[in-house]
């Protein structure tokens, strides 16, 4: 079953917490991964790999750089999850 | 049909000795910054690298190999004449023929040991070790010298931000010989040639010779794609090698992954859920990425500093241009 927006944000929060050690409550739709959440370009790759597994989506390298905020990633996953 | 007498090998093989050679010149990040727009902080945070060694004119692929091998042979407690084969993994010996292994075998004073080079990028050590194990168990050599050696500084474009800070030079060698107990596990290895574009030499030598390109060839990579492959696929391969050896992460004493980038190492440690008790090689910090040489160099350092000891169980995994990979579990010499 496809995940809802809320579930995706909660899932991303857990992933970001695991990878960058940021408290889950800080992971909000308007937050930028690099500027607000201490996720650099390489941690972002790890976030993407974890999100792909968790939400059953494919996020190619070329699309990763467009995912600036938690909202961008959430929208992408909502649209592409199978 | 005549009956052919088969060769007689040892029941198992093990690493008996290890040696390393690091070039005398230590190159800090400041030197790298002369040619690229970057910072010490960026390089450290993205790769863990603080310094690397670059070879001088005398520190050739053969010379560094002879130094490292001499130490490995002494560590193994054998003499050079006992070595039946010399396998050299390198991508930076700039003379296509003859194989540099023959010169090394001669300089070491082996008794006409079989000698050849292999090309398996950063997986070269695991490929060489697997060949050596097979030769010893099959009986075509009693002792085999496996050398990983690179002068990557010769194949680095110092103006390329994606690679200038990454590579270093050096040689690492191990002596592999007979064993009564299994001490080198099954190898999990393979290639993914569909990803050959992600790490490669910019252009073939012939394009440079013909003047088609003016810039000397260098190694180039798609950093993010390589990083993704390494953290995602290589953690799985490492796990498969553990499973193939019948071990759990908790059975390990040491983890020696190819020293490509400390961030890849960190990620693998996490994904593999290695317990705190496992010593992790982080030689990349002061050696950079030395491709085929990185695993034996890191192994030698861990043993020299006492962070690892003889008899410890170590998971080793190499991966790189090809893309190729090889992982196995070994007992440390
Ligand atoms: C090389 C590597 C460290 C680069 O990191 P990266 O995060 O992929 O770098 P990117 O090219 O995506 O760039 C990310 C940001 O850093 C900047 N950047 C790139 N190279 C830089 C450098 N040398 N110094 C400073 N900043 C740099 C980019 O401009 C970009 O900034 P922006 O987001 O403001 O545009 C990384 O990809 C890597 O190590 N990959 C694995 C390589 C490897 O191990 N290869 C050998 C395997 S055997």
Task: Give a quick precis of the structure.
The complex is a heterodimer of chains A (82) and B (333). Chain A has 82 residues and is mainly α.
Task: Name the descriptors.
heterodimer, A: 82 residues, mainly alpha, Non-ribosomal Peptide Synthetase Peptidyl Carrier Protein, Chain A, B: 333 residues, alpha/beta, Peroxisomal Thiolase, Chain A, domain 1, 2 domains, five-stranded mixed sheet, 10 helices, 32% helix, 25% strand, globular, binds coenzyme A, acyl carrier activity (chain A), cytoplasm (chain A)
Structure description:
The complex is a heterodimer of chains A (82) and B (333). The model of chain A has no long low-confidence stretch (mean pLDDT 91). Chain A has helices at residues 5-20, 33-37, 41-55, 61-64, 70-80. Helix content of chain A is 62%, strand content 0%. With 82 residues, chain A is an all-alpha fold. The longest helix of chain A is centred in the N-terminal third of the chain and has 16 residues, at 5-20. Chain A contains five helices and no strands. Chain A has a single domain (5-21, 28-80), classed as ACP-like (Non-ribosomal Peptide Synthetase Peptidyl Carrier Protein, Chain A, Orthogonal Bundle). The longest helix of chain B is centred in the C-terminal third of the chain and has 22 residues, at 223-244. Chain B has two domains: 12-182, Thiolase/Chalcone synthase (Peroxisomal Thiolase, Chain A, domain 1, 3-Layer(aba) Sandwich), CATH 3.40.47; 185-332, Thiolase/Chalcone synthase (Peroxisomal Thiolase, Chain A, domain 1, 3-Layer(aba) Sandwich), CATH 3.40.47.10. In chain B, the strands form four sheets. A five-stranded mixed sheet of chain B has the order 1-7-6-4-5, with helices on both faces. In chain B, strands 8-14-13-11-12 form a five-stranded mixed sheet, sandwiched between helices. Chain B has helices at residues 29-32, 40-47, 61-76, 100-108, 124-138, 205-209, 223-244, 262-271, 284-287, 294-305, and strands spanning 12-21, 25-28, 51-54, 83-89, 114-118, 143-151, 169-179, 188-191, 199-201, 219-221, 254-257, 279-280, 313-320, 324-331. In chain B, a hairpin with a 3-residue loop joins strand 13 (313-320) and strand 14 (324-331). Chain B is globular, with a radius of gyration of 19 Å. Chain B has ten helices and 14 strands. By secondary structure, chain B is α/β, with parallel strands linked by helices. In chain B, helix 3 crosses helix 4 and helix 7 (223-244) packs across helix 8. The interface between A and B is small, with 9 and 11 residues. The structure holds coenzyme A (COA). Coenzyme A binds at residues 36, 38, 42, 46-47, 122, 161-162, 199, 221, 223-224, 226-227, 260-261, 264, 289, 320 of chain B. Chain B: The active site is at 122, 258, 289. Chain B: Keywords: Acyltransferase, Cytoplasm, Fatty acid biosynthesis, Fatty acid metabolism, Lipid biosynthesis, Lipid metabolism, Multifunctional enzyme, Transferase. Chain B: Residues 116-193 form the Beta-ketoacyl-[acyl-carrier-protein] synthase III N-terminal domain.
